[in-house]
Sequence to fold (588 residues):
Amino acid sequence: MSRLMVASIGPASSVQDGGRRGAQRYGLTVSGAMDRLALAAANTLVGNEPLAAAVEIGPFGATFTAKDGAVRVAIAGAPRNADVAGRPVAMDTSVTLKDGETLTLGFARGGAFTYLAIEGAIKGELVFGSLAVNARAGLGSPYPRPLRAGDEFTVDAASGAPELRIELPKPVSGPIRVVMGPQDDEFDDANKALFLDSEWKISATSDRMGYRLEGPAIKHLHGHNIVSDGTVNGSIQVPGNGAPIALMMDRGTSGGYPKIATVITADVGRLAQTSAGTAFRFKAVTMAEAQDEARKFQQLIRTLPDRLRSSDTIELNIEALSDANVAGYAVSAMDAGTWQVTAEP
Amino acid sequence: MAATLPPPRLLPSGDSAVTVEFSRTIDDAANERVLALDKALLATPIEGISETIPTYRSLLVHYDPGKIGFDALCDKLLPIACQPLPPSTKARRWRIPVAYGGEHGIDLEDVAKALNTTPDDIVARHVGGDYRVAMIGFTPGWSYLSGLDKSLHMSRRQNPRLFTPAGTISIGGIQAGIQCLAAPSGWHLLGRTPVRTYQLHRNPTFLTEPGDRVTFFAIDHKTFEEQDRAAEAGEIIAEQVIA
Fold:
């Protein structure tokens, strides 16, 4: 066995997987990765099950050191500068750390969460089938709290498999898609239109439990108290002050505010990766379209192994990478040679 | 043969869940129907349903749109939700100790003042209630109770507290509650129980189920400390009443 030590890490970083299902009826939150596609991409790169436990790294930088042998890891999600002992590492690739080597990840450049998957996956004690950390409930494994410097994972020794990259489809851009309801009838047409036609920004006070949205105040038809009922990942509830909150992975399983709309499954990760302060819009879609997108999203995660490529078929353009290190901009790691710099949606 | 019951509303909760709503208010009859539908789905699962969450007045049904579409699911859910109710099975009864007032119930005095009475009287009214676990939600083990004495119905706090301790016994609106973990809350804190309605490595992990009945009884703060230590070590503390 090797070890991977967290040498340094910012707040809002924890072990996450596909989440904890089966005890929501007892109030046990689901938790799990904020961006499932990025988690699945990182895991696929090192041969793990797509929703195996990995490190979810918040917007700040982090460093990891291999001990007692080599460790093979992969990174996907919010783009960052990364290197191993000074050798640059691209997003969406795997890389092997030799014994004693350190992987250094910079701040997220656009987006929020980057996933570090470890070959063989993180091991720990499953609760309702999951290691996902919910710090409030003191749940998760091997550390039931945010990660901090000095934490260590006992991991499989690197297999020596060739390094890979994964070709993800071009990210969807444009509005975050929602299905209206379940309590959209608690709002009149003018306020539903206000919700759909306005520009929103995610407040800096947001966390894994909920994203507070800054924009116009949405008014209720009959007041803001409803009798508590169940919530889902992506429920958008409107509390008394009219500022919507999109409920995220650490949401409570029930809530007592009317829910005007629900983010479609395929777009929850995209909302999670929207940086605080970046303007975006919502768009209502039909149930048929939402379910079609959900099925495509499932299919994409299932077929990620078909998207693996040898990592030496891409040449890194370090200059473009560093040029792209501008707030609000992301660089596509897919288009080698062109390195198109695109504004975020 | 009994007539079928009026149909619930089926409200989409995104692309992977549907809320089966029987009522918009807190209503034990609607809650019975929620629990009956929940039971029926557990006994005879519909392909594609992954998890169900009973609440006061609705059942949230999580499903996999890769296995069943919204319309097909609703077509299967409606007839089951409209079936006549089976006779309700005997509920479990729990007696739960509470250390009222002082540091454990910091709102007791204020509640008494607001209702123009004494703290002892508030405790007597709270202890006098016969409650029903209508739902569990928000955080692990948080049991929402119906059956709060009408004279204790009062609006939630203007400013919700960001922290209330584990074991808090509180009232809010027309509801009473048993809170297991520390959490934010806008309810009024009357006391604390040593009972853990959720404890990870205890068997059972979760103590209460929707449909259970609950009564409270007062203990002094010294007894609380003793029972709290025992509970921490895995004792259930709550007394189950065998009828």
